[in-house]
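Obj.: predict assembly geometry.
Materials: sequence records (below).
Method: joint structure prediction, all chains together.
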Amino acid sequence: MTVSDVRTDLGAEEVVERTPWPAAILGLIARYPLGAAGALVVVAMIFAAVFADVIAPYDPEANAYEYMFTAPGGQYWLGADDFGRDIFSRIIYGARTALFVGFVAAFVGATGGLVLGVASAYFGGWFDLIIQRVMDVIMAFPLIILALAVISVLGPGIDKVIIAITIPFIPQCARVVRSSALAIREIPYIDAARACGFSHARIILRHMVPNVMAPFLIMITAFVGQAILLEATLSYLGLGVQEPVPAWGLMLKSGAEEYAESAPWIPIFPGIAISLAVFGFNLFGDALRDALDPKLRAQ
Amino acid sequence: MYAYIIKRLILMIPTLFGAAVLVFVLMRLVPGDVCEIKMAGDGAFVDPEAIEICRQNLGLNDPVYVQFGQVIWGYLTFDLGTSMWTGRDITHEIGLRFQLSLQVAFMATLVAILIAIPLGTISAIKQDTWIDYVVRTFSIAGIAMPSFWLGIMIILGLLITTQAWFGDPWMPPIVYVSPFEDLAGNLSQLIWPAVATGYRYSAVATRMTRSTLLEVLREDYVRTARAKGLLERVIINRHALKNAMLPVVTIFGIEFAFLIGGLVVTEQVFNLNGLGKLFVESVETSDFTMVQQLVMLVVVIFVFMNFLVDLLYAWLDPRIRYA
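Observations (raw structure tokens):
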């Protein structure tokens, strides 16, 4: 048998076993209806963020004082704010800000936690003890308090907001990843890798990290929702993203409370956008956890 | 039990010390010098001598270990120094607002308990029916909704309904009155922020009640109770719920500690002059001494609440204290 024969054989097997993707997706939707709803929100949000230039009917930062406080209707679908800016356009562009902050903070925070968690489990001993105590200390700070303390040092702005949100995520992920990595460290193939004389970095990155991907992915989806909420909170307090950048939390700050009675559309719609986005990521994350964690699936 | 308490108390010390170091280092990372920011932050010319006096007063010219020693000594003697912004005593400023924040935290926890336990129980009993789905969606919505937005919506709802029913819009009072002076006035002001935060904090507990109750309902002793022909209500209330409550109690304890910090934004919406508002104002005005002490206060409360929860847990479940 030649090599090409073997390849053909393997190809034939794959075709027989693989479920066509539309059926696979339908199967997933039937199994995790809430997760599918979450995924739909996430996809819609990514779509809005990517194609904001095409979808949004107006420039989100352009003031039009003659249209201040226009009620929702044909011209402004979700109304205009106290600067005459289109709320619908600002919400569409706001998805960009939210997703940017959400994904960057979640990815950097979870990756930092992944490296520290796996290294902590792999080395054990003093290294583990010190890292874990430092993580304990950071986790003694409620999320928003630590973020506010960091902002008080760095000052407001989108890049600083990302840093402030990322720091509290690191220990949360490190804790979860470490417990999975501790179990993996005891499996003989790690001893085998050590016996082969591989470097610590190679064992950690090539042999341990790929095996803790499930908790890592679960943590990322959970973090995106939290980060979006935290960014909105900081921006609402005036300590996050600054005007005129379209951001949902900021839209609730600028005059939203003052005009709540006379122009209720100003606070209502950005709040719905935040809630829906976090709701979507939470549902999606829950379903992902159920699908990736066989122990939970068994229950 | 005493040995357990002492062991847990000793374990608190390194965490608190680490937190003090972290807060101290964080505040030293401020770009430039706090005195320069305070006096010349907006670019105005300031006499260098004035900045020097400010540094002297704040002890910034001392070696770092002396400064840290002073901070720790301050914690031990409850002397938290003075605010850089107002020049007032920090212990006094915190004391003024502590009562309000504590009361809202208590009320919000109560709201959370009243929502979480009945809903979690119903959700578990009616597992995988439409009722279960509605309850789960309601609780996930609680986590997703920002509590400050819920606060704005509550105020808006109050304005609209009172306008429609009584002809005059009604707003919760803005000036704080102690519950000992005017209970009705106090409650009419604080019930709304308590509902806004309580709903949010009920979400995790609802899910926890549901999942632990589901586990307990599959235990053999519940089957025995059913076989004896006990009423379902008696089985749930007397046999299942009691055992399912342990992890839920932990959640409430930890959340209560989080609440002191979680009120940061809600107090802003309802214009309550509590610790959260003081915190935000201090961050806005770069009042570093105040921020430092407030962060430390929240951490102390948080660590102490964790300690109390552990004790409660050990008291409720003897296996823990003998382990």
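Conclusions so far: Residues 95 and 146 of chain A are 25 Å apart (CA to CA).
To do: check interface contacts against the pulldown list.
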